[in-house]
What we know:
- The chain is mainly beta.
- It has 2 domains: 2-48; 50-252, Alpha-Beta Complex (Fumarylacetoacetate hydrolase, domain 2).
- Helices cover 10% and strands 42% of the residues.
- It has 4 helices and 19 strands.
- It has helices at residues 65-70, 143-149, 153-157, 200-207; strands spanning 2-8, 11-18, 21-26, 34-42, 48-49, 57-61, 80-84, 89-90, 95-98, 105-106, 109-115, 131-138, 141-142, 162-169, 178-183, 186-192, 218-220, 235-240, 244-252.
- The strands form 3 sheets. Strands 1, 2, 3, 4, 5, 6, 7, 8, 11, 12, 14 and 17 form a 12-stranded mixed β-sheet that branches. The chain has a 5-stranded mixed β-sheet with strand order 9-19-18-15-16, with no helix packed on it. A two-stranded antiparallel ribbon has the order 10-13.
Amino acid sequence: xxxxxxxxxxxxxxxxxxxxxxxxxxxxxxxxxxxxxxxxxxxxxxxxxxxxxxxxxxxxxxxxxxxxxxxxxxxxxxxxxxxxxxxxxxxxxxxxxxxxxxxxxxxxxxxxxxxxxxxxxxxxxxxxxxxxxxxxxxxxxxxxxxxxxxxxxxxxxxxxxxxxxxxxxxxxxxxxxxxxxxxxxxxxxxxxxxxxxxxxxxxxxxxxxxxxxxxxxxxxxxxxxxxxxxxxxxxxxxxxxxxxxxxxxxxxxx
Length: 254
């Protein structure tokens, strides 16, 4: 099932995408979502929003060895975690704002795990049962601010710095899929989830030992090598093999 969130009469609504048609849905994903059977319209005619509205946006830093090495960073012995504010979430084709105070803006292509049920102290062997679906994400980073601050909240937490979408796929095998980032058609990142340092089940177990994840919360699993800066006017596309593509344009802060 492909779960979408779309704009309808000025308000966000949940839907299901099937055969290129968006149908309206009632309830909440992973809790009581129901297909009404009513067609909203062809996908190209529907304004998609981020397909999740998370309480928690958990991110994993340096989870590909090659990415850690390209910035001269030590490969972590344990998952390196940070949070993005929910206000950083935007959807497909939304604009990402390049802050005036930032000197360098980097996109980071990532596979996103979407939590499907309340998760606390999850055993690694049971972790797959707590994932409700998967989508594409982009961990935009004001690199100079990240480095100058020492901790990452501000450099990675600006409004619009976490595009997610275009939908959540509930039936998907994420263990060996390519993750790419292109900028204006030029491919910059090209990794594979089989190269994650810390596996998806390990991450779920590790994270839920200290915090509770609720349905709809997300975990950005890390980005591969090839990270380079972008400028206003660029269009950045993240693609995860089998999940679709997430495109966003970069604009200068007014």
